[in-house]
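batch job 7 of whatever, protein = Sugar hydrolase
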Amino acid sequence: MSCRFLRLAVAAGLLASTALSAQQPASDPVEAVDPFIGTSGQGHTFPGAVAPFGMVQLSPDTHVGPARETYDWASGYRHEDPVILGFSHTHFSGAGHSDLGDFLVMPVSGDTVPVKAGDADTPGFRSHKADETATPGYYAVTLTDPGVRAEMTAGTRVGVHRYAFPAGKAAHLLIDLRSIIYDYPGKILWSSVRIRPDGTITGSREVRGWASPRRIFFAMRFSAPVTGHKLISTEENILYKGFKGPGRGPETLDSLSGRALIAQFDFGALGKPLEVKVALSGVDEDGAIANLDSGPGDFDAIRARTRAAWAEALGRVTIDAPKPMRTNVYTALYHSLMAPSVWSDADGRWRGPDDQVHAGGRTTRYSTFSLWDTFRAEHPLLTLIQPEERNADFVNSLVASQKASPFGILPVWEFAGKETWTMIGYHAVPVIADACLKGIRGIDCAGALKAMVASADYAPYGGLSDYMSLGYVPIDRKPEAASKTVEYAYDDWTIARLARKLGETAIAARFEKRAQNWRNSFDPKSGFLRARKSDGSFRTPFDPTAINYGSDYTEGNAWQYSWFMPHDQGGLFRLLGGDAQAVAKLDAMFDYDNSKIDYSHAEDIAGLIGQYIHGNEPSHHVAYLYNYAGQPWRTQERLKQIVESQYKPTPDGLSGNDDLGQMSAWLVFTALGFYPVAPGSNEYVIGRPFVARAEMTLPNGQHFIVIADGLSDANRYVGGVTLNGKPLERSAITDAEIRAGGELRFTMQATPNMSWATKPGARPFSTTAYRP
């Protein structure tokens, strides 16, 4: 390949991007997003093309290897990797576990077409990369080895590739059905590919992975005629499985099944870029074809539609801030709008946790629910900035999965319609309760309450039998017992809240009692949450800094989990001895000296500030707890410390896994000046803003404006707050006040205001009253 071709290809891509950008105003939120943030370090995000909540996440994969090597490549990609394996159609954004990477596509040019990916020592079809660029809904890179400029875009159910091949060289495309991001033993249970009479390529695979077994189907069309093809099985000692007779070589097959398939399509020398349009389905190949037809248009048309969709979704929050903060917040908002992802086909059909196909009617079904993470801030954010219909579809999807579940319970951590049983709690419950308590229309809340209770009463799950009989989960019977006890108690409180609203007084009373079970695992003598044994004793020895998987806590230790009773901080502070003792313990957590502690064995422990761990979710509400002790200025100090140390507009700009948008949603809320410490309370705890002005367009059409007068690096404290021009003397704002529209105005100053929102009546919600 000539250097001249590279320069022309890169220039053409840049000119196309410039032409699109020139049509956008300087304040365009799409241009403020940097999809490369989080693609290095421990962010685990991907830079590729996706529509808001889209089924297809078309992105490069840079590494596929043994499971032990895959944590850092959970999204399939790391920014610093010099080579690209290919472009696959499904990815997680910021998960702490690997999977997906379905139907890898890679262009090859020239006379030789390798069927192996290759590595540093063995040439193959993987290529070195250069000149990467990305904006929401668009990704491009130059593959220097074949000399191909590759571009990606995506619609709701389709992904489109565009490849500019070197002039005069033969163009080829490989479809690798063997590749998967997490390289499980025996990962591909079965796969198939076939060429239909009209030239449409369809196929499927069933894989053994995190959610196992998982079925996925595809349909693909090309913008240029195929001049030749090969369907090859690379499985040892098996050649063209299922076909007999002479003359049936790879060049004459029109379909093939097996466990290790790769398809090669030849196009000869092309005079213009090749476009490859791909759709997915969890139902069948016909569903994938219908999804392919549901996204009409060529690459540029689909790119334009998706860009408009991102402009609308991101534009629901307008932000005035210096460029680095604006980039951080808009990218965080972008990452918050990727999941849950569409799972039902264009005709409404979807595959459920029972592995059966269900009719969905007009309701869009969603999957990819990382609920242990996203119940905290991600879903509450979506209730404010996404249409009610979409939020209702999220909840209705959860309830539909419960109805289709062989166990009759709500999803725990679900993707592709399959349950993974990852993490703890039954955190679909607070997502549903929060939406119903906020009055999101289109939800059968009474029916949803039945699903919530069924999950909370499912005795075989996670020690619930003991929890219901003893009031806690015993550590000698179930691991992570201390964490499970407090997370169940919070979930129970949200059930009680919804039951009380619906007039189900018996259910409300039962779960209000269960919501106080957090006390049964709290040790007032040590001041920490601890695991108890079935005989009632606390397990010893006890080290509040110890983090070990399968121990007393889930991805954390006693320091983080001793604050997890978001519905009853007043009760916790009483057990600690009052406000002063609570503040002292909070300070001890943030100021802890970790110099003699090694956490290298714990993958998810990142972003440490003392024993506060921002890179993992159990800490996310803790900085706001100073408000509950009547010292909101301390919350303001800690938030500045966290934002400045944990978020940067760089590829390594996220301190930990984004976890399907939770890390990002935390920043969006915090930048606006408030945060949902206890989803289900219909309150947001006030912190301090990090943007000079923001305006939210709410689902009801109202606008809520946040203004920070005098905001600067020096003016880091809140001097006073007004709501619609009237002084606000409490450190929380209600959901109803936000949805009514209006203005929340902060006056920022250089010194703390130690009198604002300090009285017991000015503090955020708690089920236990504060001590006067």
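notes: Residues 1-26, 239-246 have pLDDT under 50 and may be disordered.
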